[in-house]
Design goal:
The complex is a heterodimer of chains A (about 290) and B (about 350). With about 290 residues, chain A is α/β, with parallel strands linked by helices. In chain A, about 25% of the residues lie in helices and about 30% in strands. Chain A has eight helices and 15 strands. In chain A, strand 7, helix 5 and strand 8 form a beta-alpha-beta unit. By secondary structure, chain B is an alpha/beta fold. Chain B has twelve helices and eleven strands. In chain B, strands 1-9-8-7-6-2-3 form a seven-stranded mixed β-sheet, with helices on both faces. Chain B has a four-stranded antiparallel β-sheet with strand order 5-4-11-10, with no helix packed on it. In chain B, helix 1 packs across helix 5. The longest helix of chain B is centred in the C-terminal third of the chain and has 20 residues. The chains are: A alpha/beta (about 290), B alpha/beta (about 350). At the A-B interface, strand 6 and strand 13 of A face strand 4, strand 5, strand 10, strand 11 and helix 10 of B. The complex binds flavin-adenine dinucleotide, iron/sulfur cluster (SF4) (2 copies) and FE2/S2 (inorganic) cluster (FES). The site of FE2/S2 (inorganic) cluster (FES) has 12 residues of chain A, from loops.
Chain lengths: ~290, ~350
């Protein structure tokens, strides 16, 4: 361990606002607006110390522009690299989209809590994603994939506005043919290439069978989606404390200090972003 | 903790003694008002004052601060050494001492803010007793008394102070710089009389026992529209509040474009953009929702985490708000159930 890196490691503990330099190691264009970025933390000690849970997020820095919270898409088992699936939606994410492979950005984290992976083990899992909501769920899906034998039936429901906006289409197409994941996709606006379902993601609940007492649900998508998906899950008799969802709020610190991410009496950055429905139904302004 | 008696005429010695190694800050007159500012001459210090415009928060969470300098070309950052001046803050009222203990829980909790911490560690606090003004309501929150969070605390007994000393640094100051004497029975008697007079001077406290319940039960009560409609979204209440800690962070480029500073500034949940997220969705677009959130967070949100209310009843927001929105009005409206 070099002198510089051991100092760096101590600083890692000392200043939670400090971003670490990370190199972009690959960029994949997923749709018109979304790209998958793979990063490698440059400092070796920081990289080795880095560990996270599916559902946690990073604060991404583009210096001179600012920071934005982005969920980690890769599975915790993928050591040494961090994948972020980023939509070009504003100043920081727009500036990231202008970067090339090999460029350096800042990352700090991981922050927030994850999906209760250990608690989910031994059960069936139902994952529901709308649009970009697949980003944090992909981390969970990949993690489940890596320890597939620990889980029962895994069902994934995926909704998007149109076929062009489906993220990780190729990867999911591959999974669709596997026996151990049930994947159903739907779009609001089909085109000539589409032979899948049409309509909102809630429509897919008619097509699935669940063992309610043995199933965990996980949801991520735009704010309007939660209420309707939960209604369907409740109709299928899933328990309120077996349903988990990830919330998006404005964030300026990620560590419970700046106050921006308040949801009722909680902060999305430290009490979430993953909340159980049991917690969320008792939170003001949650859904 | 131990106790001494300090004659008022000797306070200047304490100031002069401490000035050799520290910046002296304390309440001083500014027009009709009082502010915490640097004291260069002991005569500027006014220990018998009602309330300052801004609380001592500004010495720990700076209104504007560079967190780090970045270099755009290499995407490297260097942390700015926290900007620290060893200080002693004189004349801090009990509510303001209590407010710092509340803000500490946020900045020195699971995550530690090194900038805030460095300044906390390098600041001595000398508290002073006060008499309530009409807008004070520390009697509702139990924040009018302190037994920690200071080095020395001075209780005014007319011609002398009853000094409570609760740290090694406090004991050092007394040893080194100033003459004090032992506490005698007549001092204890004067102390008790003073405490009684203080208790009796308050406007009766509103009933806060049911507040968390009421906040949830009356979340959709029209009272929020009635109060919130008046709000100017000016953020003055947050700026003067000793327990408001929200901040914004932005990058400011240097003129040469090669680098710049990541800057933290005070923010307020009363501002309209505070809770806006991508695609323009705003979780608190209405003024009523923002006013409600501010009180909700203070009187219930923080409580759910730390077991205390995030308001010390200093009354500064009551004076700062141009449209008469304040904790007493809100609490009374909640208790009554609408206005
Ligand atoms: C836990 C979490 C996980 C997330 N995961 C992902 C992810 O995996 N992928 C992803 O792409 N996104 C993700 N996001 C969303 C992302 O953080 C936001 O879209 C973020 O705003 C993008 O930052 P930006 O600087 O590019 O956009 P901004 O420049 O911040 O613009 C975004 C929007 O915010 C508003 N806005 C911003 N600043 C202001 C202002 N000063 N005044 C008024 N309005 C303003 C505008 O409405 C604008 O449209 C996540 C968010 C959270 C909280
Ligand atoms: S809310 Fe008002 S009374 Fe309470 S601490 Fe803040 S400024 Fe003082
Ligand atoms: S409550 Fe009063 S001081 Fe606070 S933002 Fe509204 S108008 Fe301004
Ligand atoms: S992002 Fe700052 S408190 Fe949550």
């Amino acid at each position: 361990m070099g002198v510089n890196s051991s100092i760096a490691y101590r600083e890692l503990q000392a200043n939670p606002f400090r971003p670490w330099a990370a190199r972009i190691t690959s960029i994949t264009q997923l749709t018109d607006k979304e790209r998958l970025f793979e990063f490698r933390l440059i400092d070796e000690v920081v990289r080795d110390a880095f560990d996270f849970e599916a559902g946690q997020f990073m604060e991404l820095s583009i210096f001179g522009v600012g920071e934005a919270p982005i969920s980690i898409s890769s599975a915790p088992s993928k050591q040494g690299f961090i994948e972020l699936c980023v939509r070009n939606s504003g100043t920081v994410t727009g500036a990231l989209h202008e970067k090339q492979c090999g460029d350096i950005v800042g990352l700090r984290g991981p922050f927030g809590n994850g999906f209760p992976f250990e608690e989910m083990k031994g059960h069936d899992v139902l994952l529901v994603a709308g649009g970009l909501g697949i980003a944090p769920l992909k981390s969970l899906i990949n993690h489940i994939h890596d320890e597939r034998h620990e889980f029962g039936k895994v069902t994934i429901l995926l909704g998007a506005r149109n076929p062009g906006e489906i993220l990780f289409h190729e990867e999911f197409k591959m999974w669709k043919h596997r026996e151990d994941f049930d994947l159903i996709m739907t779009v609001d606006q089909p085109d000539d290439t589409w032979d899948g379902d049409v309509g909102l993601v809630t429509k897919l609940f008619d097509k699935i069978e669940l063992d309610p007492k043995n199933t965990y649900g996980a949801i991520c998508g735009p704010p309007v989606m939660y209420r309707y998906v939960i209604e369907e899950m409740r109709k299928k008799n899933l328990d309120v404390d077996h349903i988990f969802m990830s919330f998006e709020r404005r964030m300026k610190c990620g560590i419970g200090m700046c106050g921006h991410c308040g949801v009722g009496h909680q902060y999305a950055c430290i009490d979430g972003p993953v909340f159980s429905y049991w917690e969320a139904m008792n939170l003001q302004e949650a859904m | 903790m131990f106790f001494r008696i300090l004659h008022k005429g000797n306070v200047g010695d304490l100031v002069t003694g401490l000035a050799a190694t520290r910046e002296i800050v304390g309440p001083k007159a500014k027009g009709e008002d009082f502010v915490f500012g640097e004291i260069t001459d002991p005569s500027e210090l006014v220990l018998d004052y009602p309330t300052t415009i801004l609380p001592p928060k500004k010495y720990f969470l700076l209104p504007k601060e560079n967190l780090m300098h970045y270099d755009t070309k290499n995407s490297g950052v260097s942390q700015d050494a926290p900007n620290v001046t060893p200080r002693v803050i004189f004349g801090v009222h009990p509510c303001d001492i209590n407010s710092l203990l509340l803000v500490d829980k946020v900045f020195l909790g699971d995550f530690v803010d090194p900038y805030y911490k460095a300044r906390r560690d390098n600041t001595l606090i000398i508290g002073v007793s006060c008499m309530p003004t009409p807008s004070c309501m520390c009697n509702a929150f139990g924040t009018g008394e302190v037994n920690q969070g200071f080095d020395l605390f001075l209780t005014d007994l007319g011609d002398r102070y009853f000094v409570s000393c609760s740290s090694v640094e406090g004991a050092d100051m007394l040893d080194k710089f100033v003459e004090t004497r032992e506490v005698e029975p007549q001092d204890m008697k004067a102390f008790q009389e003073r405490t009684k007079a203080w208790e009796e001077a308050f406007t009766p406290a509103p009933d806060i026992t049911q507040l968390p319940l009421l906040f949830d039960a009356k979340y959709n009560d029209p009272l929020w529209e009635e109060i919130g409609d008046d709000c100017l979204s000016c953020g003055a209440c947050s700026a003067v509040c000793p327990t408001c800690y929200c901040f914004d962070v932005n990058d400011r480029q240097d003129a040469d474009g090669q680098g710049g500073n990541r800057v933290r500034t005070w923010d307020s949940c009363c501002f309209s953009s505070f809770a806006e997220v991508a695609q323009g969705h705003n979780f608190r677009a209405q003024k009523a929702a923002r006013v409600r959130y501010r009180f909700y967070h203070k009187q219930w949100g923080y409580l759910s985490k730390f077991g205390k209310v995030l308001c010390v009843g200093c009354g500064r927001c009551t004076k700062a708000c141009k449209v008469n929105i304040n904790p007493r009005r809100v609490i009374e409206a909640l208790v009554k159930g609408g206005e």
